[in-house]
Amino acid sequence: MTKKKFKKYVDIDKIVGESDSKVLQKLPKYLLTLIKKVVRQKELNEVLNKLSDSEGLVFLEGMIKELNLTIKIDGIENLPEDGRCFFAANHPFGVLDGLILTHTVSTKYGGLKAIANDAFQFVPQLNPFIVEVNVYGQSSKDRIRLLNETYDSDMPITHFPAGEVSRRYNGKIQDAPWQKSFIGKAISSRRNIVPFHFSGRNSRLFYSVFMLRRFLGIKLNLELVLLPRELFRSRNKTITLIIGKPIAYQSFNHEKSHYDWAQEVRQQVYDLPKREK
Length: 277
Prior knowledge:
Elements: H1 12-17, H2 22-25, H3 29-39, H4 41-50, H5 56-66, E1 70-74, E2 85-89, H6 96-109, E3 113-117, E4 130-133, H7 141-152, E5 157-159, E6 167-169, E7 172-174, H8 181-188, E8 192-198, H9 204-215, H10 227-233, E9 238-243, H11 258-276
Parallel strand pairs: 1-9, 2-5, 2-8, 3-4, 3-5
Antiparallel strand pairs: 6-7, 8-9
């Protein structure tokens, strides 16, 4: 039996070598070695190779088993029978919450489409679920077309409306203001919004790097390279997820702007743990 070739799903040397950034290309080898350790390149590639033959829900289940996660869900009965909704969540972890959100929704409905950035190109096992958007720039016409086709379809759609991982804002770890676009899409595609709340946070190191680079005026999101590390730190943990009752798209009337409605839904998500007490 032929042994499978080990594949480098994440290859820092290749990423740097193909980068247009002169700064990255001039990085010394010892610094690249340090980046590989921080990103947990070896561990990431080992897990992705182990699950190379799985995709979609099977891959998600494999990842949850690999991390030995216990998922506690309150409000599972709030998932509607008709899955043609937006399943919108806060984004405290960056990777872990994405895995659990898609796992929960796909287990219920058998499939979904997740609005996600192009970082997921490194995980082809998730391709059946992903609709890519360019969070930090303008999306291509093809991506916009695929997005619109997704909105018009009957597939469940998962989304993190903050568009980025939670950071420390105003002394509190929370999402940035939610983007208004998902309200407009909920109305135009006639999709109710099902709110999800994840309890938890990343490490002090993650937020410290964010605070330091903001203090220094560095725009590059340096803390994002720590997200794989944060994922593996979650091994053997219990993650609590609360699902709220669906919010009818008809409720988003002209009394408020789409931006204000987005913040209203955001607040409802953060209020979910209080309602459970």
